[in-house]
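A favour, since you know our structure tokens better than I do. It will help me judge whether the discrete encoding reads sensibly. The space below this message is yours for that.
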Amino acid sequence: MKKFPIIFTGAGPGAPDLITVRGMKALEKADYILYAGSLVPEAVLTWAGDRAKKASSAGMHLEEMVGAMADAWDKGLKVVRLHTGDPSLYGAIAEQMMRLDQREIPYEVIPGVTAAFAAAAALKVEYTVPEQSQTLIFTRMSGRTPVPEKESLESLAAHKASMAIYLSAGMAEQVQKILAATYGPEAPVAIAYRVSHPEERIIVTIVDRLAETMADNGINRLALIIVGPFLEMGKNAKSLLYDRAFAHGYRDRA
């Protein structure tokens, strides 16, 4: 019996047409799709073929997930494990892959569009600002799942780089306090709620009103908090790349 590698696929931030072409084709060919039901919208599953069996992993623990994928693989089915965003970021795929390795089951990974990039598109901004910030930090607050002390939000925010804070909407007051001490209470901050979904809301406020704004809008989950120099000066910045006086391998100095 021919068997196919299990395919871990990033579903993108929510909009069904923001999945990659490769991910879409994997869904079209799949016989069994195990998807993160608490986060992946049903609309993304419209790419699946009529014959595909779909199962949500929302109520499963790790061994159940791996067991379901392994059983389907053993039957010769084409299996897709569908994660939200990009599976490499807060996707908990490493532990799944380790157990597949233990069972000697092959797998592949298809990347996806993470919410921070969909949020930048919605905001029409560039995270990397010449001479202001050339670093984008993806991080989260420590909560039920701890964060290493050396990667605390306080220590990362001290860099004042562009930052996308995941999985922290329920701790807005703590985030506000930390950002106020580093970026300043009057610094602009963006809230990207369910970005690319039909319910998308993008709200720009100041750090000192972050918790209040989120509470007023009933946002306590499924939102990114985004902060950095790009919100103030991004569109006024000028890069060397397109400066007429800057020569490079494809263009002589004007």
Q: What stands out?
A: The helical segments are 21-29, 62-74, 93-102, 115-123, 153-157, 172-182, 210-216, 230-233. Residues 237-241 have pLDDT under 50 and may be disordered.
